[in-house]
Amino acid sequence: MTQPRIAVCQFEPTVGDVDANLDRIERLAERLPAATAVAVFPELCVTGYDLDVVPSTKTTVPGPVTERVQTVARDTGVDLVVGLPEAAGDDVYNSLVYASGDGVEATYRKQRLWGEEATQFTAGSEATTVDTPLGRLGLLLCYDLNFPELAVDYGEADCDLLAVSAAWRRSFDRDWRLLCRARALDQTCYVVGSNHLGSQSGRHHAGESLIAGPRGDVVAKTTDGVPTASAAVVPEALDVARERNPVRQSRREGADASRR
């Protein structure tokens, strides 16, 4: 039996051109291996990472943008994790949606805003999980990755995977790789880190999208000229990692002891 796979995808969005970016997402999803069940795309990839275009490109969830993402998911048979600016009443969030062929199944709102993001976005306040064909998935966005306590919430929710969508700059590329691997190791789960490629509005992004396994090793990564990578999600690998590194069990035992 073929193991189902998770994929990570990166590209250089065209700032402000939602249709062109959705077309690019569709083309990348169409080229993924047949066993791919879920694909993760970068932060704000629908609009490009440019805060100036947020007011003109914000969209409701669900809405016309997520309807197009749902169509791509249905046509390709791949569930998609995609970043966009979400309009919700008077607030706008830097959000990540998980969409299947049936529609939006989860929406995560970035909790830790970076730099001037706070001038355009309201911070989210909750972890978001979704049960997928590969296991339970938790969602994070870019700067969230720096905060171990946010990842711990997902460990406590028994997540098997974390999807981290980012617009991570070249000047911090070593941090990106280190933090993805660290969150995989300290939460004994797969971490799927999708980053922007190329330059947008003066920001130079690192690419370096990767999948880290539950022992903190990189099991797949993008390479020059190849914008996608995928890996099988192996339940036995999760079991072995959690036996060798029983941090989840120890954390719960410690919490129980403190309550006695």
UniProtKB/TrEMBL annotation:
<dbReference type="InterPro" id="IPR036526">
    <property type="entry name" value="C-N_Hydrolase_sf"/>
</dbReference>
<feature type="region of interest" description="Disordered">
    <location>
        <begin position="240"/>
        <end position="260"/>
    </location>
</feature>
<feature type="domain" description="CN hydrolase">
    <location>
        <begin position="4"/>
        <end position="240"/>
    </location>
</feature>
<dbReference type="GO" id="GO:0016787">
    <property type="term" value="F:hydrolase activity"/>
</dbReference>
<dbReference type="Pfam" id="PF00795">
    <property type="entry name" value="CN_hydrolase"/>
</dbReference>
<dbReference type="InterPro" id="IPR003010">
    <property type="entry name" value="C-N_Hydrolase"/>
</dbReference>
<keyword id="KW-0378">Hydrolase</keyword>
<protein>
    <submittedName>
        <fullName>Carbon-nitrogen hydrolase</fullName>
    </submittedName>
</protein>
